[in-house]
Amino acid sequence: MLRYLNAGESHGQLLMAVLEGVPAGLPLTAEEVNHDLARRQGGYGRGGRMRIEKDQIEFSCGVRNGKTLGNPLGLIVRNKDWENWKDIMAVEPGPPSTERVVTRPRPGHADLVGAIKYGHRDIRNVLEKASARETAIRVAVGAVGKALLAQFGMQVVSYTMEIGRVVAPAPNDPLLAFAKAEESQVRCWDQAAGEKMIEEIRLAKHKGDSLGGVFEVVVLNPPIGLGSYTQWDRRLSARLAMAAMSIQAMKGVEIGMGFESARRFGSEVHDDIYPNESRTGFLRKTNNAGGLEGGITNGQPIVLRVAMKPIATLYKPKHSVDILTKEPFEATVERSDICTVPAAGVVGEAVIAYEIANAMMEKFGGDSLEEMKRNFDAYQDYVKSF
Fold first, then answer.
1. What is the greatest pairwise CA distance in the chain?
2. Which of 127, 214, 332, 334 shows the greatest Cβ crowding within 10 Å of its Cβ?
3. What is d(CA 354, CA 148) in angstroms, rounded to the nearest whole number?
4. Which letter does DSSP use for residue 11 in this model?
5. Strands 155-163 and 213-220
6. What was the pLDDT predicted at 50?
7. How far is CA 363 from the centre of its chain?
8. d(CA 147, CA 165)
9. What integer pLDDT is reported at residue 199 of this predicted model?
10. Could you tell me which of 26, 32, 81 has the C-alpha nearest to residue 57?
11. Which of 138, 21, 7 is nearest to 71 (CA)?
């Protein structure tokens, strides 16, 4: 199985992760990870931090000559803005800095509840870790998962489906939609909808407001049999939903037809099964289930849509209360984005890729990539003859 821990503060020296369980012999380069890190920083509506940071991965251990060793991987993304925060975020003992002290919690953030939970009187101790800045290292971990999935012909893609009141039509071909989305400032596959989304973001910026939306993540070419129905916490549908909801600001997840299936008759929802001699022996002509039945992959593309709330930091601030004086005020404004839905899709790819890679390791795992491929190929032969 794969597992990782991440650490680091938004304005600290670095973000880091230790990833355990990657098989030996997996080809892995910084360039493929940096590609996704750059994608995460893009998108119309991003704020000033993206002009400061140019995220690059460092493999501190676990990789030699471009291949994994089977040891834990050490991943580091350094914060360039650290130079401006050395005194404020100093590690050494001494009197705390009086600069940038935060005592005014922002509605919609972890500020107030985090301060109460951990007993902090400077909310900076909360926001530094709760910040979405930490998704940079999670994207790096997810890129390793993508590299593993690619060895088995699998790909994880995403694109923006909604921003504010603008909704893009559903694409027929996820791979083509992804290619078109990568050329869009808002990562929308439909050009007309993308242009309207940009206008929606401009309007929000003019008002000092923010916008959320919906992105779709699709896993292409998954094998049958990942996940399990035998225990609640082994259902892959549940694990994917948790992964998506672990991203900052996410408020909803649906798989396949999702909430619409609750409004339909069963005859309109469930995917008929037909014989298919060319691939797995079985065929579905629709994918309302989103590639998952009983918490197990059925060989169809895995389709998730994730809803993101508007960014909680507003230039037209909400009302709050100072935790020290208890006086009312208008919430403070840290450097902020207007809309991060395009970037959130990239983060969504990462967390889903990690979970799928973990499920692949559970099903086919070996100490080396070569052993894992033997297990996978033998299973595919079994499925074809079932």
1. 72
2. 127
3. 9
4. T
5. antiparallel
6. 54
7. 23
8. 35
9. 97
10. 32
11. 21
**Residue with tokens 């910084």, as numbered in its chain:** 30
Higher pLDDT pick, 331 / 202? 202
CA atoms within 13 A on the CB side of 228: 9
Q: Is 289 helix (H, G, I), strand (E, B) or coil?
A: coil
Comparing C-alpha atoms, which of 8, 252, 228 is closest to residue 129? 8
Confidence of residue 337 (pLDDT cuts 50, 70, 90): confident
pLDDT digits (tens, 9 = 90+) for 11-69: 999 999 999 999 999 999 999 999 999 999 998 876 655 556 689 999 999 999 999 99
Could you count the other beta carbons within 10 Å of the beta carbon of residue 95? Answer: 6
Contact 103, 323 (CB under 8 A): yes
Domain positions in the chain: 3-384
Sheet of strand 14-20, all strands in order from the earlier edge strand to the far edge:
3-7, 14-20, 73-78, 57-61
Q: With 0.90 as the threshold, say if the pTM is over it.
A: yes
249 Cβ contact list (under 8 Å, min separation 6): 132, 212, 308, 309, 311, 312, 340, 344
Q: What is the pLDDT of residues 103-146, one digit of tens each?
A: 999 899 999 999 999 999 999 999 999 999 999 999 999 999 99
Classified as helix, coil or strand, 290 is: coil
HSE of 169, CA atoms in CB hemisphere, 13 A: 6
Residue 292's beta-bridge partner residues?
297
Please give the Cα distance from 245 to 84 (Å, whole number). Answer: 32
